[in-house]
Design brief:
alpha+beta; Beta-Lactamase; Heat Shock Protein 90; 3 domains; 4-stranded antiparallel sheet; 10 helices; about 55% helix; transferase; ATP binding; Sig_transdc_His_kin-like_C
Length: about 450
């Protein structure tokens, strides 16, 4: 069963049950109170009849006339009888006898669908000059206080309860339908959004128009879930691109070295084979550590810091790029200060240099040249990489360290990268507490300056 139908049925059932209970209790209490009121009024009326007859008897000199008794009996619809102390009948109403009263009242009760009632009598003292000289007997039907007006009032009251029940039920049905739709419509929207997200449409978002706090929070939670899943999916795709980017450069280096050996440019001696082995080891480290290299927060990467000779590592890294540059007619010039030691992640340092040198080679013109310098200055190691390539436009300089950003030239160039290299470099350098700055003149070349603290 749909939630809207279930909610409507529950709401209507609750209303009907509440109305029935309320009407039943209210009807009983009001009827009881009303009957008690009529009973008290009837008793007061009988007391008043007794007082009036006693006063009339004493006023007339201890005499009552038959027409007076008959008038009272007819007016009050009762039977009147007066007896002395010896139980002898002194006066009696002749036009209102017991039999006639019973038939008349029976017809009235039957016409209103009520029970017939029983004839009863009640005794009152008959007083003469403050002394009881007999008894006054007043006979009546026990429910005679239910006059036509009283019966009409009770019937009207019962009908009003019935009409109120019907009206309230209809109103409750309308309200429940409106309320049900106001609750179920946004829930259906949220359900549909969740289904779309489950199917893989991670850009689907829930849009609800309601002021119900819980539904708004549920909608926000579903939207947050969709955003989180979309972000995770994007991170997964970026991570795959990172892996591809990081593996491409050492593989290209290995390929160029092997081609140089095959073409006879290099001899397969121990030195060159060691270079190939170094690249293979680097690939192994990349495969083992890529999962820790780029977390979602980028700066929160795992560092395996060791103290090593920065001058020697930079030199060996540059040597691996010499065949690549030589093959394309480019040159690498280096000025490295000896015996500079630093405490940092050695593999991450190689990633920095690999990315910058592989990035530079893409944008060198004919007779391209890259100059690399390393020096210690105060408590920092300063690495400067300068090329005479095509340079970077001024508008692109503030954006080049953003992940996946590529300049217009790199998009048009066949050798253009994925836009990850400089982002990776910036992330690693920041993780080590360093900085990287770039100066470039479009059409003349680019200069990268890396500052790494020696005591990190």
């Amino acid at each position: 069963m749909k939630l809207s139908k279930k909610f409507t049925l529950f709401f209507i059932s609750s209303i009907l049950f509440s109305i029935i209970i309320t009407s039943f209790i209210s009807n009983i209490m009001i009827n009881n109170k009303f009957e008690n009121y009529l009973t008290d009024e009837h008793q007061n009326r009988l007391d008043q009849i007794s007082n009036n007859l006693n006063q009339l008897y004493n006023k007339n000199g201890c005499v009552l006339h038959q027409n007076e008794i008959n008038s009272y009996a007819s007016l009050e619809n009762v039977y009147i009888e007066i007896r002395d102390l010896n139980d002898n009948i002194l006066y009696t109403s002749t036009n209102n006898n017991k039999m006639g009263m019973g038939h008349m009242h029976k017809r009235m009760m039957m016409s209103h669908g009520m029970y017939e009632g029983n004839y009863v009598e009640k005794d009152f003292p008959f007083i003469q000059e403050n002394e009881e000289v007999g008894k006054l007997i007043i006979g009546y039907i026990d429910n005679s206080y239910l006059t036509k007006s009283a019966i009409l009032f009770k019937n009207t009251l019962s009908k009003s309860f019935l009409l109120s029940t019907i009206f309230t039920t209809i109103l409750g049905l309308i309200v429940s339908i409106i309320l049900s739709k106001s609750l179920t419509t946004p829930l259906i929207n949220i359900r549909n959004t969740a289904v779309e997200i489950r199917k893989g449409n991670l850009n689907k978002r829930s849009k609800v128009n309601t002021n119900t706090l819980e539904i708004v929070e549920l909608s926000d939670s579903i939207n947050f879930l969709g955003q989180t899943l979309a972000k995770q999916d994007n991170i997964r795709k970026k991570y795959a691109s990172d892996i591809s980017h990081e593996l491409r450069t050492p593989l290209a280096t290995l390929k160029s070295h092997l081609e140089a050996i095959i073409d006879g440019v290099w001899q397969p001696n121990e030195e060159h084979l060691n270079i190939l082995m170094t690249e293979i080891d680097r690939l192994s480290h990349l495969v083992d550590n890529l999962k820790d290299s780029f977390n979602a927060t980028e700066l929160d990467i795992i560092l395996n810091k060791t103290k090593f000779n920065l001058s020697k590592e930079l030199e060996s890294t540059i040597i691996t790029f010499v065949p690549l540059y030589t093959k394309q007619g480019f040159t690498i010039e280096r000025h490295i200060e000896d015996h500079i030691y630093i405490n940092m992640d050695k593999d991450k340092f190689k990633q920095i240099i690999y990315n910058l040198l592989s990035n530079s080679i893409r944008y060198l013109n004919e007779l391209g040249k890259v100059k690399i310098t390393l020096k210690a200055e105060k408590n920092n190691a300063i690495i400067n990489i300068t090329d005479n390539g095509i340079g970077i436009e001024e508008k692109d300089i503030p954006l080049i360290f953003q992940r996946f950003y590529r300049t217009d030239i790199s998009r048009n160039k066949n050798t253009g990268g994925t836009g990850l290299g400089l982002s990776i470099v910036n992330t690693i350098i920041k993780a080590h507490g360093g900085t990287i700055n770039v100066n470039s003149i479009y059409g003349k070349g680019t200069e990268f300056t890396i500052t790494l603290p020696l005591d990190i």
